[in-house]
Amino acid sequence: MLGHAAQALGHTCRFLDPAENPPAALVGETIRADYDDSAALCELAAASDVVTYEFENVPVDALQTLAPRTVLYPPPDALRLAQDRLSEKQLFEKLGIPVPPYQIVDSREDLVATIATLGFPAVLKTRRYGYDGKGQFVIRDGGDLDSAWTLLGGRPLIAEAWVPFEREVSIIGARARDGSTRTWPLTENRHTDGILRVSLAPVDDAALERVAVRYMHLLLDQLDYVGVLTLELFVSGNGLLANEFAPRVHNSGHWTIEGAATSQFENHVRAVCGAPLGSTRCRDFVGMVNLIGLIPAAIRALPDPRTTLHDYGKTARAGRKLGHVTVVAPTAAERDRLVADLDHIVNQTEDLQGLLP
Amino acid sequence: MLGHAAQALGHTCRFLDPAENPPAALVGETIRADYDDSAALCELAAASDVVTYEFENVPVDALQTLAPRTVLYPPPDALRLAQDRLSEKQLFEKLGIPVPPYQIVDSREDLVATIATLGFPAVLKTRRYGYDGKGQFVIRDGGDLDSAWTLLGGRPLIAEAWVPFEREVSIIGARARDGSTRTWPLTENRHTDGILRVSLAPVDDAALERVAVRYMHLLLDQLDYVGVLTLELFVSGNGLLANEFAPRVHNSGHWTIEGAATSQFENHVRAVCGAPLGSTRCRDFVGMVNLIGLIPAAIRALPDPRTTLHDYGKTARAGRKLGHVTVVAPTAAERDRLVADLDHIVNQTEDLQGLLP
Known about the structure:
The structure is a homodimer. By secondary structure, chain A is an alpha+beta fold. Helix content of chain A is 32%, strand content 27%. In chain A, a hairpin with a 2-residue loop joins strand 13 and strand 14 (239-246). Chain A starts with a helix and ends in a 9-residue tail after the last helix. Chains A and B meet through helix 1 and strand 16 of A and helix 1 and strand 16 of B.
């Protein structure tokens, strides 16, 4: 989707990806190499006016290799801070952005002491390389301590108090090279098993949005950021609490292709290439339903003109995001009804997922 | 743009194009061959589930080669009829769609006799292979007869009475395999030297639009059409007169990428692939300004968030369409002001066009 946006702006893309047939190969030459392959990184830098990245498990060292050899955005520091849940939370705290109570857990003794402080339930998380709910364990009572430690122990960990949140939201912002900033409307996100299933925009709460936009500006300016950044937040009884940020375009912003004047993808390309940002104004009421593991035939043949299918051209695999459907409707109620219908179709095919490789 | 739409729907594209570096090569494998190269056509057919075309000077024979070997849309007959201004007008007449007065011109004597009937000014046109105003000559008085004949004589010609039109409009429609049909809002088009410069949508005239939509349905159903079709019309004192139709996505519909729920490109792909059509509902007030010969630096660096640049990645050449800018604004007045500004920038650089190859 980034590649399409770049091509429409007249750019030619080249990709570095360790996968065999990455979707990006459809829109440009691909250097197949690991992210830490110096020769490949140098080849990419030499061939490019600008390099960007859109996966937060790219090693920061790769960016350090690229930085002196090309123009590189977003800044490596943003990735470095986002990769460790501790530095991420410390950044939030430094900026006065509230976070759920947390403790560092480096040993089993730490874990026991931490849970004594935080109480049940608590969430034990690896500090690094979490993705789509992986590297997390919800500790509901004392009986879960052993399982949690067996699964995750030995790596740098963090424990967080369970936030009894009303809903999860995200705010996506873009910052241009000249420091000008735009944000898309606040988006509500629904997860199952740690994987985003549904996004809905805009969230009809101007006060909440104002706070989220302020946090976004604090982050973007602090990081001297260029590109698109996503901030995930919990809406709790105590207001907005920051969960994490991602220095990239985000699944919860895929709806901006149809739903906003300029998509997150186009504005990311504009920003990193030094162009001015496009309008982030929202269109009607938008929903996004992820297609995970397989793309149901009923979705592919969907006769509803208010929906748009995006098929990433990936091989089906259980738990893999293969595409999404965007819904644009003139009222929130109509959007919600459509999203519920789509979600129902997707859930009906869940049983088939066991058959997938 | 068709390729991007197809990829987003999960399709893989392969192109046949005689050009050295066609823009399509960015999004798929390209067979470089002439349109009448049977071996290349067979290769394309063998490798494809569906074949479509989007240039009306593709020879009908090429479609006849493809048709028995693959699924081919739009139907070859639509192209055949569109390629000859005489058969095109006869089709309009058969369907009761009014056309400007015209006469067949096969000799210089025909020309003199025709002009005596039609009066001055009249437009002499080649029946085939016209494009962007090429193959046309406006005969303003008797002194133009020789020049017109020298330039165009010897080919099958047609002469048309000059229509004192108020404005030119186009209607774009899509028809799915099951016969269901959708049209985008009526669009006003402004040409200079036969080349489309500006399109504006929607045209605020419901009565006019109803007539245009009716003509579109007549055409689509008569042709048993599948895909996107464009009908260009003159708005004259005598109502709507058909100018020509194009069996393809159209420059006057490029605004649908940002301005409509589903673009002409996506609906063309949906139609030819047997998928249901997406909504053609329009967003706010939309304008499109073509970038011809060169893309001005001032346009590339345009800081206006209501505009989106599309750069086709073509080599600059005088008279060549290299890209376009779409404007989406909340009011018609704001849209018109923006379009005028853009047009001004484009016109200012016209003088440079003489320097182009």
